[in-house]
Write a structure and sequence with these properties.
Elements: H1 8-20, H2 29-48, H3 55-59, H4 61-80
Length: 87
Amino acid sequence: MTASAQAPFQQTLRWLAAHTGFPARRLPEKAELLVLLATAAATEENQAAGTPANAALIKNRNFAAQMRNYTAMRRRAHINSDNSAKT
């Protein structure tokens, strides 16, 4: 995170103070819960930034290659099969 960027929690507190008069006034309970859930999700995204979703596959390149080959073979077999003749 750069020096000018703020953590999601700090951004949320600033927004609440600017738009709702927080802490003197508060949002309804459900609205606060939604804002805090969004803040938690943004925090989690920031922590996971830079980590690909398939990090485990990238670490094991041999397995990743095997899975790509297996998927390609299944696609070819599915295209060439005739499933109209049911037994």
